[in-house]
Amino acid sequence: MKEQKPNKKTFSELIEKNQGLIHKITLVYVDNPADREDLFQEICLQLWKSYPNFRGKSKFSTWMYRVALNTAISNIRKMKSSIAFESIKEYKQIPADFAEDNEDVLQLYRAIGQLNRIDKAIILLWLEEKSYDEIASITGLTKSNVSVKLMRIKKKLEEIVNQTVKQES
């Protein structure tokens, strides 16, 4: 099959429509605003490079999640070897389009930030109301493994939030 030339207008519209999911990924994978902006740009670049290979066999957002998560994880590996991260507890700013000064949302994203890479990916996908099949497809896990991991992740998040509330009291 001949590779199609990417359509910039269509791509830009798809990115604009789905940019919230990129912001959510950058939020939980990097701590400071400058690094989040850099990661956002890197994800967009990787999406553009990969766009000619998108065949429509899955929803665009599912494909986008896969590329964005792989880019975020790869980027974090590179960053960890070169710089020290700020504590997620220092993070006070969440993009306004999905937080709107909601302290509960801020607390949830801080807790998610404390999870390991794959758990962050799974919970973000679940929060986006992706099906277990879609989460499995994006992460490379089995559907049953996704189910088990989600139960554990939810319990872990509850423990992290409860511990944070105790510390703040």
UniProtKB/TrEMBL annotation:
Which stretches make up the RNA polymerase sigma factor 70 region 4 type domain?
A: 107-157
A Pfam family that the UniProt record links to this protein: Sigma70_r2
Q: Does the keyword Transcription regulation apply?
A: yes
Q: Which UniProt keywords apply?
A: Sigma factor, Transcription, Transcription regulation
Family matches, as InterPro entries: RNA_pol_sigma-70-like (IPR039425), RNA_pol_sigma-70_dom (IPR014284), RNA_pol_sigma70_r2 (IPR007627), RNA_pol_sigma70_r4_t2 (IPR013249), RNA_pol_sigma_r2 (IPR013325), RNA_pol_sigma_r3/r4-like (IPR013324), WH-like_DNA-bd_sf (IPR036388)
Q: Which GO terms describe its biological process?
A: DNA-templated transcription initiation
Q: Which residue ranges does the record assign to the RNA polymerase sigma-70 region domain?
A: 14-78
Looking up Gene3D superfamilies in the UniProt record yields:
1.10.1740.10, Winged helix-like DNA-binding domain superfamily/Winged helix DNA-binding domain
Q: Which residues cross the membrane?
A: none
GO MF terms on file?
DNA binding; sigma factor activity
Task: Report the leader peptide range.
Answer: none
Which family does the entry's similarity section mention?
Belongs to the sigma-70 factor family. ECF subfamily.
NCBIfam families, A to Z: sigma70-ECF (TIGR02937)
According to UniProt, the name of this protein is Sigma-70 family RNA polymerase sigma factor
